[in-house]
Amino acid sequence: MEYFDLVVVRALRIIGQSATTLRSALIRMAFSDSTPSAKAVLRALLALSSLHRHGSQKQAESYKYAALGAMREAARVQLQGKTLLQHVAASMLLCTFESETVRDASHQWVWYLGSACSLARMSAQDPTAREDDDYTVLMGWVQYYDVVSRFSLYHWKPETPAAASLTQDNRIMCMLKNLCDLHRSPYPRVESHQILHLLGSGIRYICMSREPVLVPNLQVHLQKIAQELISADFRSPSPANSYDQRIPELYQIAALVYLSHAAPDVFPRGIELHGLTERAFALLDELDSCPWLMLLVLFACEARSDEKRAVILRLVEEAEKYGGRFEGLRYAREMMRFRWVQDDLGGGNASYVRRMDVLMSTSGVLPILL
Hints:
Radius of gyration: 20 Å
Subcellular location: Nucleus
GO biological process, one term: positive regulation of transcription by RNA polymerase II
InterPro entries: Fun_TF
Protein name: Transcription factor domain-containing protein
Keywords: Nucleus
């Protein structure tokens, strides 16, 4: 557990709250009692720790299956209160585990995230769970994965056997649809989750813009999101001790850049895209590390100069020191290289959305850019 406490916590992505807050919540859940639900969290923590320390091997898999066994045992009775939140935590840890080993036709992270999201909806209806001290940070964790998964699911359109097998599986497609419909999940509307709500809503409506008849007044919805993103203040108050505060601002800028490209007709006039990207790269250049892959990929698409690409590559190399063996990071690097080659060759006349589709589909494997 010491290894998890010191190292693996870096793999837990959350916006608006520190990873140490999430770490503390997970450790409390794992050691709060001796119930099967607590054991599931502990085994999932050990599985992720083993994966990070020794790579993909039998011990990590053994802990994973032990976590699943404990979850099955706990599910024999009605889940409620703390046990419900413990199941959310175990599902999220196993989703993280699978996201770091995804390859070939394996998309098991989808199942675990779908399970976590379903349980999150249940916990939102459970008064005891909502009053738990760890409820808000846990829901923020689920919400972040939800938002990032929407981005992957929206743009992933490869013509490969792996994709065909996925789209032909009715159970998985139902799960994917549930993930894309998660705007109905009542995540806490607290200040720390505001950027997640706006980013997720923007991706959702951009997704629906392919079939605008499904959403009356689609343009109005997109304009409202753009205005809220512009009005929100995620700027860090001081350069010192502001690492966790810079990430929300970077996601705010990334959301605005994405929206300005994907739906230029609704983007407010007077907002200079160049100024936004310059601010983003200034922030990135100040960071010692930035392992948020979705951020790096989105800003890599804006890196036209060697200087800006060097900023991105430095942060990728720093992330590789701690997670270089994991597949998500490798796919992110491949996407960046692919996009830069495209840009250097002229890029063609394809739209931003179509180019993002191609970019996200380069590996043929459904990635999740945590």
